[in-house]
Amino acid sequence: MSEPDPVRWEYETLRPPRNETKKEATDPKAELNELGAAGWELVSTVEYEGGGTKYLVFKRPASASDHD
Predict the structure, then answer these.
(1) In this structure, what is the dihedral angle of CA atoms 31, 37, 42, 47, given to the nearest 10 degrees?
(2) How confident is the model at residue 59 (pLDDT cuts 50, 70, 90)?
(3) What is the pTM (predicted TM-score) of this model?
């Protein structure tokens, strides 16, 4: 009996808006909701040294057409 194909993932990143002080300037809720509606799930953050979020990392299952 053969094993099922493993789930393949695709990844996306979002860079939160920052102001001159290098702090997050605005709430990225609208962008997060758009990604969530498109099937993306937040899985991790990449932080700047010294604080602040550089990237939000999302994943979702890759479509069958992406496997070829």
Answers:
(1) -10
(2) very high
(3) 0.71
Pure H helices in the chain: 29-37
What's the one-letter identity of residue 45? T
pLDDT at 61 over 80: yes
The residue behind tokens 């789930």 is: 7
Chain centroid, CA 59 distance in Å: 6
Contact 9, 59 (CB under 8 A): yes
Alpha-carbon span 65 to 33, nearest angstrom: 25
Asked if 24 and 52 count as a contact pair (C-beta separation under 8 A), the reply is: yes
Give the tokens for residue 52: 């602040």
